Amino acid sequence: MTTTAQIPLTISEPEKRSRRRGSLSRTLVSYSFLAPWLIGFLGLTLGPTLASLYLSFTNFDLLQDPQFIGLANYQRIVTNDVKFWHSMQVTFTYVVMAVPLKLAFALGLAMVLNRGIAGLPLYRALFYLPSLLGASVAIAVLWRQLFAKDGLANVALGLFGIEGPSWISDPNYSLYTLVLLSVWQFGSPMIIFLAGLRQIPPDVYEAANIDGANKVQQFFKITLPLLTPVVFFNGIVQTIDAFKAFTPAFIISEGTGGPIDSTLFYTLYLYQEGFAYFRMGYASALAWILLIIIASFTAFSFLTSRYWVHYND
Amino acid sequence: MTDAAATTQNVGGARSLLYHVILCAVSLVMLYPLLWMLASSFKPDDEIFGNASLWPDSFTIDAYIRGWSGLTVSFGTFFWNSLVIAVLSVIGNVISCSLAAYAFARLKFPLKNFWFALMLGTLMLPYHVTLIPQYVLFLNLDWVNTFLPLVVPKFLAADAFFIFLLYQFFRGIPRELDEAAIIDGAGPWRIFWSVMLPLSVPALATAAIFTFIWTWDDFFGPLIYLNDASQYTVQLGLRTFVDSTGKSDWSALFAMSVVALIPVLLFFGIFQRLLIEGIATTGLKG
Question: How large is the ipTM?
Answer without folding.
Answer: 0.85
